[in-house]
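Exercise 7. Predict the joint structure of the components listed below.
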Amino acid sequence: MNVTLSINGRYHTLDIDPRTSLLDACRDHLALTGSKKGCDHGQCGACTMLVNGRRINSCLTLAVMHENDTITTVEGLGTAENLHPMQAAFVEHDGYQCGYCTPGQIVSAVGMLGEIGDGWPSHVTKDIKTGTELSGDEIRERMSGNLCRCSAYPNIVDAIETAAGKTKEPA
Amino acid sequence: MDETRIQDRSGAGEPSIAELGERPPTHERAIKGGVHTKRIHDSGVKHVSGAARYVDDEPELPGTLQIYIAMSEKAHARIVSLDVSKVRDVPGVACVLTANDIPGQNDYSPVFGDDPIFPQTSGPEALVQYVGQPIFAVAAETIDLARRAAKLAIVEYEELPAAITIEQALAAAGEAGHDLLDPHEMRIGDVDAALEGAPHRVLGRVAVGGQDHFYLEGQIAYSIPLEDGDVLVRSSTQHPSEVQHNVAKMLGVPDHAVTVEVRRMGGGFGGKESQPALFAAVTALAAVKTGRPVKCRLDRDDDMEMTGKRHEVTINYAVGFSGNGRIAAGDFSHLVRCGYSRDLSAAIADRAMFHADNAYSLPAARILSRRLKTHTVSNTAFRGFGGPQGMVGIERVMDRIAFETGIDPLDVRKVNLYPSFDSDRAPGVTPYHMPVTDSIIAELVEELEVTSGYRARREAIRQFNAQSPVLKKGLALTPVKFGISFTTSHLNQAGALVHVYKDGSVHLNHGGTEMGQGLFVKVAQVVAEEFQIDIEKVKITATTTAKVPNTSATAASSGSDLNGMAAQAAARTIKNRLIDYACGRYHVPEEQVVFAANRVLIGNEEKRFADLVGEAYLARISLSSTGFYATPDIHYDRESASGQPFYYFAYGAACSEVVIDMLTGEYKLLRADILHDCGTSLNPAIDRGQIEGGFIQGMGWLTMEELWWDDKGRLKTHAPSTYKIPTANDRPDDLRIAIWEKGENRSDTIYRSKAVGEPPFMLAISVFSALTDAVIAAGDGKAFPDLDAPATPERVLKAVEGVRG
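Solution:
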């Protein structure tokens, strides 16, 4: 069936099987291969995209469900010549090793900062009435859905703190 | 990049040398990206922008087929019949592959010839030996179609008795009269007499679980058929040469008919050493049969069920020691669960033995290793390659001696460490008769003891535990000594290929593969340093068997040591040709040709590197060279279990503090201090990443990653939903990592650096020992816990209940 998707500021009309996941639509039909397929189960986070600014496991959602949504993939955040601050912070802090989880980490981190900004509480939020403060604990808790087998976590957390304006010198 | 003035057939006639030097050299003090600098990973910007291409990201050629591999549902069974006719009839299925379709050898094993690509469909070899073993493959227009078509196959099994656990494997080995591989023994001194004569003796056992690699990029191969029946395979592999050889032998063609290429992997950790050959072989077979490009990209669950893991090992120990904790003799036996085939288990089980002493000098020792067959997936290489399992044994012994003597565990460890290379004492000798002549472990441990505040924290923890009824803390400081070299000596060789183009830019290729560890940037740093040019002038290129042949796996932490040396040799050859040219052209002695940052000083003149290269090209000097390196001075005689299998040792130590909840068994790593020896680090930023990542991955292995098979041999932890690897939340809140500043390799390695891929993994044993310490505290120090690994909350709770009686 035909579906029109708004991805990274451009409209794409695709003729796809209605069972095609948003991830496969991007990877297999639009050559947007930045988002990775790590587990295809919504458990590793490598496929994370932003849908209307909220992070989502794109392997667990069908492309046809997102006709009227605004979708952002890692390619839409910034390019090599013009990196998004989160991407730049990951480079500054070596927030990766093999790089396979990195696009998902970065997109997830951008979405996560939005959630904190909007006051969404998490499991480690001390007092949900007084709002949510950005802290290492909050970042680690909220990023725990993005697996990194190289365990570059210390640098990932540092990079996110830097991008969030909490300046931290690279180790 | 500078433009070159040199054009072929430009019509401008022969360019003169004077024309080349029209721009003066710049005068930087140092090049960008030389050795010992914190250069970022070469793919960093591509990683963060999604532009880094992995095999699955390369555009697929038109007509590409997708492969689904059908797997055995039985742990051990005879295949009575296999009917795939209905699968073949499904529209969109291009071919179905069984053992009958293989023109050459039906085997993808690295050494022993016992890993069939598919089982035979009839006769005595129509046998499956683990749940998940490939039986046949379907190549179809889409993966969904291939998967659905495969379900139409009819497989009739006749089940046979299966050994799943180590206990069952022991019983089966007893019945069969042999193990999967012959036992091996290392021995030094008179162990029985020393045990007999020791003032104290204890016996014990510790079981250590396996580990799934969980590389975020699963196994994948993409084969493109070429003319003459040749094939190009893009494989996510640490060992392109072995994949090449296995594909060729399966097709029944010479190695030269197969080219294997890999730009980067999304993680390897050992899981892409021998395993990728299967997927490469299946795609190559389908590509040759259909004439179409073929991809096989494993689903995560299929990957976890089908591919090998870290070896589970049970270690029995008997140790004799004196009142101050000094060991007189250690007797270890390793029961190694190898799975159904031999794979790399001989070398892995050997490396467990090579590290049964860890950093401790044992006056008398015996290490017996039995390699057992189970009807489970064939276990394989994983970061540390058996070394970590060996070390857990002796570290458990240290904790046990401390418990028995009442001496602080750190003091027991210290009294047993190998003497320093510069001490008055004779060097210690390993159980394989190799003198340890480069030990710095005593000094390193001493330094970490101070910087981690060990003694004060020990006292604080004692006080905390005395007044805390439910939460108990534990502390441990453990050392690591890890042998560097492939213990199979001939593998310690590497090749490189360096081209200098006439514009002064450089193309670098070598046999090592990039899996995130930063090998490519380190080797590029070496080449940049050699030519004294900025690292941006060095192009890093994909590993391919067509450029550098007969390579060893990027494994055993050896990547930078071997390939760095080979690339340096290649660069030196070209550099020497440039020097010879300059000496002849400008009539200066050799010592007056000096490569400085991006320029070359020739007598009183200086010119840009690119201009000297241009001149040399016009003078018809070859600007391309291979380089080769073979590690010197290593040998090992397996018959006598003695020799010098390692070129040197890498050292490190970690101090971990944990807190456990006695009511639930849950725990938290509160703080970890790490001091690690990278020699003179080639790239401290990259090395630090390896230290952090290795430690956390090791912690995952020893604490939360549990592989669980049911009694039918079905792996029930085959996805991240049931198999838990560390997340951002599992790293300790307080993680303090330092690279040992005094580090310098006593062996002549590339810029005196040390290998760093595997050694830090074993720093995580400090977490396991700290948990043991906390459980002892939970029992008020009255009993020593039988805590096995992984020390999941369930196991910790059970151990707590055990020590509380």
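Discussion. The longest helix of chain A spans residues 102-117.
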